[in-house]
Amino acid sequence: MRALWHARKGEWDAAHQLASDDSSKMASRIHAYLHRMEGDLSNARYWYRQAGVTPETGTLEQEWELLARDLLSAESD
What we know:
The protein has helices spanning 2-8, 12-20, 25-37, 41-51, 60-76. It has 77 residues and is mainly α.
């Protein structure tokens, strides 16, 4: 969640560091989002594969909201 918070504030490097330090599938999804955000689509596709999910095709805002919703959902389980 902290990585998404940093991404929302435009602090890409801080968000990327947090995603890089975590080996979970969710961190890989966030990593993909961050590379998509910077326009590095080939790197984003790599991280979507690592996460085991289909690459997102909606807006970055929609993807951010989906990630945040999924994280909050996982926390309540």
